[in-house]
Structures are given as C-alpha cells and as structure tokens.
Design brief:
By secondary structure, the protein is of the alpha+beta class. The protein folds into 2 domains: 118 residues, no CATH class; 125 residues, no CATH class. It is built from 3 helices and 15 strands. The strands form 3 sheets. Strands 1, 2, 3, 4, 5, 6 and 7 form a 7-stranded antiparallel sheet that branches. It starts with a helix and ends with a strand.
Length: 298
C-alpha cells in the first residue's frame, strides 16, 4: 500500500509540475509577443546618480560619520549617519539632503590635448553619492537615514539641501538625423564622462563644456559629431588621412577637416547644467564617441 501511495503521490507531483510548466511556457509566450513600451524619460537613477561638473557649489555641511563607525568605513542605504549641522543651524526633522563627493581622475592622463584645461574651466567633478533624511536633531549635529545610494557614502562627503531635478522627456527615435545641418547654436566638446570614462555609447553619461553661460538648459538635446581628419582621439592616425592613405589611394586635391561633411555620431539629453558645463545622458549612439568629440546644442 505504501508503494502504491508513493506512486500515486509521485504521479500527482509530476502532473502538477507538468501543468505549471505549460502555464509558465504559455505566459512566457504571451509576454514575448507583447511589445514593451519604451521609457518616456530618464529614470530616477539616471537623473540623480549622473554626477556633474560645476564651479558653483558650496561645501559648508559635511557628513561626519555614522553608527557603528568603529567597524564601518562606508555607509549605504538604511544606515544612520551624522551631519555637521543641527537645530542651531536651522536643521529640522524630515529635512532631505543630497550627498556628493568631489573627485579627480586617479590616472591624471589626458585623453586629448586640451582636456585638462577645459575641465578646469568647467569646474570640479562631483560624484552623486546618495540622499539622506534627517530623523533626529541636536544643537550642532543631526542624525539622518540614508534613503537612496548611488555609491557608498563616506566621512567628509558634502551634504547639500535636496533639490528636485527635472526629468526631461525623450524625443522620438525617428527624429535622429544622420545628416542634420549645423544648428547655428553654441558648439563645445565632450570633455569627460562619469567615473572618468573616455568613451561613450547609449545611456552613458558625459560632461560637455556648454553650460548656462553658453545658452544650455535642462531638457536640451546636444548633437555629438566629429570632423574627418581629427586627431583628438587617442587612436593613432596618419596625417591627412581624410584624403590619402599610404598604399590605399589618394586624391589629387587636398581636403582640410572643414572641407568635408562632419560625421554625426549620436546625441544626448541635458540632465543638469552649471555655469560652463552640462551633464548629458547619451540617448542615441550610431558610433562610439570619445572625449574630444564635438557637441552642439540642437
């Protein structure tokens, strides 16, 4: 009897598993045939973890430390941290703050000739580390909970009152124009990228030396392009390769960089601006982009 019961139990188990598999397969089949609508705008992480370059930023308030500081060297979501202002400085329970950290490229190697000078003119590079909410206030210090983390938070990070960042809408992909004419608006360069990246593609974050002083604003689109004959990128090139290549032909006439059509590489949407800088989320990439490529406001 026990053998029969065991056999019946096994049979029921196999039947249930078979039914579940069939249902699961049907669900997967249905979902795979349904089109997933594209995002209408950058998500929260893309906007609030983008980082920025600016010359207009104060660093009066700091993250001092946090609970369990004898064992913790960094802090993250749901940790309790201490900030350097309290009720005497106007802090109240419920206040929200952004936590950022100034950073610099540890390699200190230029990707293109003018990179260091352009970046210095734009300001300092800041990492978006996260956000905190005050839960307890004392006269000169406050305790806050880490509510959102892009990166780890650490002692000495800069704490600033939280400001909402606009989430500009994406434009339709059909509007990308490979042969778009010159816009006639301000032109700059892609100077660097988030985490000191020097190459960029779709959904990467880059920083350009076009800011509020040059007419850039949040929600603008910037077109990324390159000229034939450019030597800005690090890949080695022959001189005048735009019209001659040893062993592979040449033209009887010389052509300079501005004699030939520019090559449009892609575009991105402006997430934030400083006086002389923009944070750009690349939304379309036809070819790989490099620090040193040009941008123009569309």
């Amino acid at each position: 009897m026990r053998a029969i019961a065991a056999g019946m139990g096994l049979g029921m188990l196999l039947a249930a598993a078979s039914a579940w598999t069939q249902n699961s397969s049907q669900e997967q089949s249905v979902s795979s045939t349904q089109s997933v609508s594209a995002a209408a705008s950058p998500d929260y992480t893309a906007v609030y973890c983008a980082g920025f370059v600016t010359s207009d930023y104060r660093d009066e308030t700091r993250l001092i430390s946090g609970e369990e500081s004898n064992a913790k060297i960094v802090f993250t979501t749901h940790d309790y941290v201490f900030i350097s202002k309290g009720s005497n400085q106007g802090v109240r329970v419920g206040d929200r703050y952004s936590v950022v950290r100034a950073d610099k490229d540890p390699t200190d190697v230029q990707w293109f000739k003018w990179q260091d000078k352009l970046l210095k003119a734009m300001g300092k590079y800041y990492i978006d580390a996260g956000q905190v909410k005050v839960i307890n206030v004392q006269p000169n210090v406050s305790t806050a909970e880490v509510t959102f983390a892009c990166d780890y938070l650490q002692r000495g990070d800069i704490v600033q009152p939280f400001q909402e960042r606009p989430t500009p809408p994406y434009k339709a992909a059909s509007e990308n124009d490979r042969f778009a004419p010159v816009s006639g608006k301000s032109v700059g360069m892609v100077v660097a990228g988030k985490d000191f990246a020097q190459t960029f593609g779709k959904f990467n974050t880059a920083y350009a030396n076009l800011g509020a002083n040059q007419g850039a604003k949040v929600g603008d689109y910037m077109r990324v392009f390159r000229y034939q004959g450019s030597h800005a990128e690090t890949a080695p090139n022959f001189d005048d390769y735009q019209y001659k290549m040893y062993g592979f032909g040449s033209t009887p006439q010389k052509y300079q960089w501005n004699d030939l059509p520019r090559e449009i590489l892609g575009e991105g949407i402006v997430l934030s601006v400083g006086p002389n800088s923009s944070t750009i989320l690349i939304t379309y990439s036809r070819l790989e982009m490099y620090a040193g490529d040009y941008v123009e406001i569309e």
